[in-house]
Amino acid sequence: RARTMAALALGPLRLLRGRGLCRGASLRLRGSPRPSPSQAPRPRPLSLQPTSRLRGPRSLRSPLLPLLPRAPASSPPAPRRPRSSSASPPPLGLSGLTAISAIDGRYGRLTEELRPVFSELGLIRTRVQVEVTWLLKLSKMESVPEVPPLSAAAIEDLHDIYREFSLADGERVKEIERVTKHDVKAVEYFLKERVQHSEELRAIAEFLHFACTSEDINNLAYALMLREARDQVILPWMDTLIGDMRAMAHGYASIPMLCRTHGQPATPSTMGKEVANFVYRLGVQRKQFGEVGIRGKFAGAVGNYNAHLSAYPDVDWRAVAREFVGEDLGLVWNPYVTQIESHDFVAELFDALGRFNTVLIDFNRDMWGYISLGYFRQRAVEGEIGSSTMPHKVNPIDFENSEGNLGIANAIFGHFATKLPVSRYQRDLSDSTVMRSIGVGAAHSLIAYKATCAGMKKLDVNADLMAKELDDHWEVLAEPVQTVMRRYGVEEPYEKLKDLTRGKGIDADRMQEFISTLEIPEAEKERLSKLTPLTYLGNAAEQARDV
User: Fold this and answer.
1) CA nearest neighbour of 473 among 504, 499, 496, 497
2) What is the pLDDT of residue 39?
3) How distant, in Å, are the alpha carbons of 203, 306, 315, 327, 328 from that of 145?
4) What is the pLDDT, as a whole number, of residue 3?
5) pTM of the complete model
6) Which of 310, 387, 437, 529 is catalytic?
7) Residue 387 annotated as catalytic
8) How confident is the model at residue 497 (pLDDT cuts 50, 70, 90)?
9) Do residues 245 and 279 make contact, with C-beta atoms less than 8 angstroms apart?
């Protein structure tokens, strides 16, 4: 007790000492023995404990807390003690700087078109659309008299719920979900709230989500999201990309270039024809992607319409589901299902998108290579920097960016293709978290398409360099010469040209000399003599213009 009272009395002294006004030795109680030098306590080291632990109302601070000596003004600042693992940093609001994923952060401006579709808000809105459309379907069925035909005003009110679905509406659904711990049930309760203003709709509110399992709503919502993303965002950007590439093929249709097989000089083509190859390949994959049927189910808990038939045993619910999925929602009805739609079409859809992406990776790498060879010059953009140490650099960053994003997208699509069609028995929940990520691969693909388009717009073909390179490789004419020799029965034409050209430098004069010795018609000799690497192009230009 005496020590406690003394400590309380020394409070003002501690305050002075804490402000640097009192720098005496350690404090001791009056009457206590003075320690001998050998027993004297060593100076307390500077505490690294954050001072925030001492904060709080002064009346609640213990007067017996150890005093922290003040560091001399000339001393360097002491290192901070690492934050306790139990301490959490203040929460950060979501922005381009705080987003974990680059598709919402660094590349957020490139994925804006997909946010209304694949975001949580987009999923909730589409769930609302399915629930509302199902209630409207019931109101049109004479076999369900408990849901009478609705007035035009009531129908419009229901449509407006999802057509005008707002961020505040989404937040209300999430607020309900925090209580229900069930996302689809929260949508049902939200809708029941929204129809309370109408006596007509309030009377049939219990037919919202009638006979449905959550997956009846979810699978159709995701199907509608995929259709919207494909038709309204991805396909238009595919068409833009292919269109820009087609213009490039047409513009460079007649510009000769030395081809490379196995990385070695090969038969010439034109730059336009080589780009045209990709135009055609991408067009094939784009068509297949656009033709994948977007399927949906609406058959209850395990696919047998159990709940439907328990309430209305005389209704042909399979026919109703076929109409609802196929006509009311515009999807392809899947008649044989468990609790979930099998997701086979999702795998098929993303496999097709992945093939398109793989062809585009091939294009990006070729463009990268042509830039490296000097076939293309890149226009420098004012203010851009290619290297932090090499000021001259103008890097093919758009094609590299595209390639990287396409790789991420295809990795995700590969998981979709192998995971989603597999479900234990009639359903397990492992597909749920995967389906929530369907927008990620699409977003990386979209970023890539835009990057490739940007890269193509920065290119200028270097026709002079390409022509000079061709003139340095007259050995590429060995192919047409030996082919003509075969026509006219010259023995061992391939072997003779091989001896002349393989691994050897050859110029125009040497090739002309060889042609003059051939035992073939003079007209053919004259025609071969006029041939040069710049003109030995076959029908490359024609193919490029036809694509």
Assistant:
1) 504
2) 52
3) 13, 20, 12, 22, 20
4) 60
5) 0.81
6) 387
7) yes
8) confident
9) yes
